[in-house]
Design brief:
binds norvaline; Ornithine carbamoyltransferase; Rossmann fold; about 300 residues; 5-stranded parallel beta sheet; globular; binds phosphoric acid mono(formamide)ester
Length: about 300
C-alpha cells in the first residue's frame, strides 16, 4: 500500500476524517476508563522536526507516542544537519530508514511537500505557513463531542486569513459545514483555497453580522509565527475584529468558542473571553492528544474498528 501522508485535510477522504474523529473520541474514553493500557506502538518511533516553537503540538505528539508504547524524537534545526543545509530530500530518505513516521512544523509548505515526496514513511504536517490540519482534527472532535454531527452547521472565522483559516476552509469542505470568514480587507485567505470550497465558504467584513446565529466562533492570533515584525501594523489593521462576549451573544444560544492557542488576551479576544463557559479551549487543547493518537494509529496501522 502506498504511504499515506497528512499534509492537509484533503489528504484523507471525508469518510476517513469522520472515522478519525469517532476513533479519537473512543481512544479518549478508553484512556479515561482504563488509563494508558492500549499500547499498539511498541518499539515504534516518531521523529518530530520543529523549525518553529510549540507547546501543545510537541507535548501532544510526544505524549501520544509514550502512552501508545512507542517513542518520539525531538529534532530541531539548531542541532541537526537540517540547520546546516543538508537537503530536505536526503533527510527524508535517512529518517525513512530508521523511524516509523515523521512530524514536521515548518515555514514553507512546499518544503513539507518535498520532504513527503522523498519519504517512504508517513509525514504529518504539524503546522506550516499555509495549513494546520492536526489542530482541525482536535477542533472538529471538540465540536462533535459537545454538539454532535457538524454537517450543515455554521462556523465563523474572525481575523487573519492564515494557516488556521485555510485549514478551517478545508474542514468545511470535508465535514460539510458552512464557514463564514470575516477578515479585514488585505488579510483574506488564499483565493484558490476559498474558491475550491465553493458555496461552503463565504467572506464577510462585519464581525457582528458574521456571527449572527452561528453555531461556532473561532479566531487566532493576528500575527503568526514568522510575522512578528508586522505585530504593530496588524494590531491597527485588525481593530474591531476582537472576539468578545457581546459578539458571542449575537450567535446561537448554544454557540461554542474555539481558539487553537496560544491566545493574546486584549488583542484577538477580550481579556475575559476564555473564562466564558462558551469558550471550550482547554478541552480543545487536550483533544490534540486524542486526535493525533487516532491519526498516528490510522497512518501506521490502518483502521481499527471500534
Ligand atoms: N495550537 C498549537 O499548535 O499550539 P502550539 O504552537 O503550542 O503547538
Ligand atoms: N497561526 C498561528 C497558529 C499557532 C498555533 C501561527 O502560525 O503562529
Amino acid at each position: 500500500m502506498a504511504t499515506r501522508h497528512f499534509l492537509t485535510l484533503l489528504d484523507l477522504s471525508p469518510e476517513e476524517l469522520t472515522y478519525l474523529v469517532r476513533r479519537a473520541i473512543t481512544i479518549k474514553n478508553g484512556l479515561k476508563t482504563h488509563g494508558p493500557t492500549y499500547t499498539p506502538f511498541a518499539n515504534r518511533t516518531l521523529a518530530m522536526i520543529f523549525e518553529k516553537s510549540s507547546t501543545r503540538t510537541r507535548v501532544s505528539f510526544e505524549t501520544a507516542m509514550a502512552q501508545f508504547g512507542g517513542h518520539a524524537l525531538f529534532l530541531s534545526p539548531r542541532d541537526t544537519q537540517l540547520g546546516r543545509g543538508e537537503p530536505i530530500g536526503d533527510t527524508a530518505r535517512v529518517l525513512s530508514e530508521m523511524v516509523d513516521a515523521v512530524m514536521i512544523r515548518t515555514f514553507d509548505h512546499s518544503g513539507l511537500e518535498a520532504f513527503a515526496a522523498a519519504s517512504s514513511v508517513p509525514v504529518i504536517n504539524a503546522l506550516s505557513d499555509d495549513y494546520h490540519p492536526c489542530q482541525l482534527l482536535a477542533d472538529v472532535m471538540t465540536w462533535s463531542e459537545l454538539r454532535g454531527n457538524v454537517r450543515d452547521k455554521t462556523a465563523v472565522w474572525i481575523g487573519d486569513g492564515n494557516n488556521m483559516c485555510h485549514s478551517w476552509i478545508n474542514a468545511a469542505r470535508q465535514f460539510g459545514f458552512k464557514l463564514r470568514i470575516c477578515c479585514p480587507e488585505g488579510y483574506d485567505p488564499d483565493p484558490a483555497i476559498v474558491a475550491a470550497a465553493g458555496d461552503q465558504v463565504s467572506i464577510l467584513r462585519d464581525p457582528q453580522a458574521a456571527v449572527a446565529g452561528a453555531d461556532l466562533v473561532t479566531t487566532d492570533v493576528w500575527a503568526s509565527m514568522g510575522q512578528e515584525e508586522e505585530q504593530a501594523k496588524r494590531e491597527a489593521d485588525f481593530a474591531g475584529f476582537q472576539v468578545t462576549e457581546a459578539m458571542l451573544d449575537l450567535a446561537a444560544d448554544d454557540v461554542l468558542f474555539l481558539h487553537c492557542l496560544p491566545a493574546h488576551r486584549g488583542e484577538e479576544i477580550s481579556t475575559t473571553l476564555l473564562d466564558d463557559p462558551r469558550a471550550v479551549v482547554w478541552q480543545e487543547a487536550g483533544n490534540r492528544l486524542h486526535a493525533q493518537k487516532a491519526l498516528l494509529e490510522f497512518l501506521l496501522l490502518g483502521r481499527v474498528e471500534n
